[in-house]
Amino acid sequence: MRVLLVEDEPDLARALARGLGEASFVVDVASDGDEGLYRACEIAYEAVVLDLMLPQRDGWDVLQRRRAAGRATPVLILTARDALADRVRGLNLGADDYLVKPVALEELVARLRALGRRAAAHPSPQLHVAGLRIDLAARRVHRGDREIELTGREYGILELLARSHGTIVTRTEISEHLYNDDAEPFSNAIDVHVASLRRKLGGGVIQTRRGLGYLIAAEP
Question: Do 134 and 189 belong together in one domain?
Fold first, then answer.
């Protein structure tokens, strides 16, 4: 799950990015409202974590301009402003959730995953596709009674393909889902991860459309 964190306090931004990364999120950080608005409107994130008190452009303006641009990416406000009026204003401007600092990392992770499930029209924490049972909350995969052990990258690819089952997902989309702007994956990294994933899942689950990408076929 690729997330944009808009936070101007460097130590907090680093700590949150590190914690979310350890929870298998891919995190890009914007340190002011201008950069946050640009990234939120131009890059396909699955969620945005937005502070309200930002330099250049505050979080309220980011919310308004993002909505005017027609972006539907879920936004979680993370701020020190704890007044009821601020909560109501943020939600009315289009935010999907509101947390007050300081926040427990476990709660932030859980809320972001819930936003991701909701945005992907999978409110249930489990997804059933191609004979697999994918627990989106615990990030565990089963075929029947057998658990399939996956690396973080392999799980990220599988979840993306499963959420999009019946639709081709390009290598570019997979790369954007797995890596932030600072990463420089080797040229055939996606192919290597998919090959390993296929070995673990068994033949026929992930299909290749040469020159286009990969898909998990829709259930008959």
Answer: yes
